[in-house]
Recover the amino acids of this structure.
């Protein structure tokens, strides 16, 4: 009987150590692609976390993450797809000026140059969107710039594609959001050693 209790205590201790290490060593959400691969260190260095709101919802489900291409014209995913049904309000993640609001290849697109983000400025893009803003409009963080359009999505499920560029270089849009907006769910407590596990 003593050996059995000792074995259970050791098992709990090992489990606690493994769970603690998994939490401590997990990469931050902003550096994960949809495949779980960590983006290269410094890839988006210099991208300020100026975002104050998600483009849709509070913490939308990421249907497909950032997958930077190996070459300029290589395969990849130059943005993030966020779950959002048609009609969902689309918001500017940060303050800026609308640099484009119109159709590209049959899709509604809104692009916003972000204020105070260098030269050339960072530019966010949202598609497919039915725009409620026009070119040169000034927008604030969280301001509605349109709604998710019924058609034009490349996702299997309804979504909005959110992109980020500096000049012609695509960047990971999740780097715009501060860590507090990227966190998911409540904090979880780890088991306490010495407390019997219910049978």
């Amino acid at each position: 009987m003593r050996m059995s209790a000792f074995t259970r205590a050791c098992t709990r201790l090992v489990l606690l150590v493994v769970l603690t290490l998994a939490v401590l060593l997990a990469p931050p959400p902003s550096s994960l692609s949809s495949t779980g691969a960590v983006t290269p260190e410094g890839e988006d260095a210099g991208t300020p976390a100026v975002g104050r709101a998600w483009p849709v919802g509070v913490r939308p489900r990421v249907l497909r993450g950032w997958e930077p291409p190996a070459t300029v014209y290589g395969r990849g995913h130059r943005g993030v797809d966020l779950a959002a049904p048609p009609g969902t309000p689309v918001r500017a993640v940060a303050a800026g000026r609308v640099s484009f609001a119109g159709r590209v290849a049959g899709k509604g697109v809104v692009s916003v140059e972000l204020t105070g983000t260098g030269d050339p400025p960072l530019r966010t893009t949202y598609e497919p969107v039915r725009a409620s803003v026009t070119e040169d409009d000034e927008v604030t963080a969280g301001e509605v710039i349109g709604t998710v359009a019924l058609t034009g999505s490349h996702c299997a499920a309804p979504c909005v594609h959110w992109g980020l560029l500096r000049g012609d270089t695509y960047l990971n849009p999740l780097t715009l959001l501060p860590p507090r907006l990227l966190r998911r769910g409540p904090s979880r407590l780890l088991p306490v050693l010495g407390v019997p596990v219910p049978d």
